[in-house]
Amino acid sequence: MTLRLFKTTIRKLLFSLILISFQSQAQEISLDHIISIFYQRNIDLIAARYNINQSFAESIVASAIPNPTVTFQIGELSNTNLNKGASATGCNHNINVSCGPSEYYTFNQLIEIAGKRGLREQSSVYATQAAEADFRDAVRIFTNLIRNTYYQLLQSQKNLELTQEIVDHYKIITKANSLRLSSGDISESDFLRVKMEAMKAESDLDNAQTAVSLAHAELAVVLRWPAQSLQFEAKEEWPEVKAINPSQNQDELVNLALKQRPDLQADKLRADQANKQLELAQRLKYPDVTITAGYARDPSNNALNSGFVGFSVPIPIFYQYKGESDKAQVNLNQNQLIAEQTELAIRNDVISALATWKSTDKIVQRFKEGLLADAMTVRKSAELAYSKGATSVLDFIEAQRSYKNVMHDYYAAQINRANAYYDLEKSLGIEPDTHKTDELVKPPKLLNN
Question: Is the overall model pTM greater than 0.90, yes or no?
């Protein structure tokens, strides 16, 4: 045994031990569990939640009533003559007696007219609702992202299982061929051809194991690499088809999406907000009134104690806030255009997703209706015929390859069908179950830091 062969043997032995250890420690984890972990750890969703909080804060500011202003003044201060001998009623008229300084107490209150405060409140309500719709839209998009990553791991696992099954199968065949070769039942060239296929299957197994590791790593990155993220297996589970009612046609599904999609709801709410802002800008030309009231104690006046009341109004003569109105109108037009573009994109999303799901569903049904059974039958028939010398080694190898290709295509079709269904749910605006999103505050026992 050469040194290179010895190193290769040791490397394979160590890899097998690591694989056995991994499989013994790996735990199956469901898609719902993965989604709950993702919700807990994803920064983007947390940031979207902060936007909602910010909108609530802005709504409080918008609905606030202006605070009044209270002013206190002291006047007529003098070191030599502090209102001595003042003639005001109630004051001592002796020139040697001081009646004290004058005192002024003023109260000012701004009163908004033309419904400006109400318009600001309505605008802030639309902004808050739009932020909530943005959050639901983020949940919709990110949930589909984690589903795709999860099924990529599941597909790599299924391919690994298939490749391992083929390797084990070739080991049995190779062992049987060794006996047949020693008895002269097959030629050495046929024996070597089968052996080469077995070695190729082992290489495919190495590649499949690498694909599983890469899929684990990609999922761990999406989950922001929680502890033990490489020590679980994706549970084989497929979506329950409930988004599509067989009696619904394409137009009905499009209308359903237009009602449910949170991104369209957010755009329409922003257009409504822009409309309220336009009304507010148009009403700025109606000036607000400041009411002033006060009390004065002035010894220098004939009346020692007096009160006063008045108001002030800015007169919009030179500037009537046309710039604010034009800017608000442009903002409204832009938001309405964005809502229209989103609606067109939704129609295209639904039509494309529906066509893709129907296509992938038909492909899976073809596999289940006979293609899988046919591939298995051909494989067994070729093995039986080859074992009795009734067929060539090339036919036997071709049957093995056909079986492997059919199984690979079947697993890919299943994954494509699952992803297509969830893409259809996403296009229709179907949101995840409430109990899943509520698990944001419930860290799971598995994979926590």
Answer: no
